[in-house]
Specification:
Low-confidence stretches: none
Strand content: under 5%
Structural class: mainly alpha
Length: about 130
């Protein structure tokens, strides 16, 4: 039995919540520029998929609407609400595209960054081997 598409979005949201919780301070696995490079790379990948996810998230409504079956609470206008949804979807897709571009620029900016190990005791042995 497959999971519903909405469950996958819930899992993605949970992953972002966990990242936000664990990345709030530096630690052994979240301290160096290479850690940021990896994290931003994953964020770039995620952001790059949002535009399609936004577009596909409305499919159940559009399917139901195309079959004349959308009802609006209190006798509201289905055409007006679907038009509102479509306009908001276009805005969200444009915002997702802009987010993707910005996060990709972040990833490009951090790409050449590294750690200057000069004078850091735990790295002194490595420097002597070079």
């Amino acid at each position: 039995m497959s999971e519903s598409p909405a469950r996958h979005l819930s899992a993605a949201a949970e992953g972002i919540r966990a990242f936000n919780h664990t990345s709030g301070s530096v630690g052994d696995d979240w301290i160096y520029p290479s850690h940021a490079y990896s994290g931003i790379g994953n964020l770039s990948y995620l952001a790059g998929m949002l535009e399609q996810a936004v577009q596909q998230s409305t499919r159940p409504v559009m399917y139901t609407y195309e079959h004349g079956r959308v009802l609006i609470d209190n006798g509201g206008d289905a055409d007006a609400k679907v038009s509102e949804l479509v306009a908001a979807q276009r805005d969200a897709q444009a915002a997702a595209a802009a987010l993707t571009a910005a996060v990709q620029r972040m990833h490009n900016a951090v790409s050449p960054m590294g750690l200057d190990t000069t004078g850091i005791p735990e790295f002194e042995d490595d420097e002597d081997d070079a």
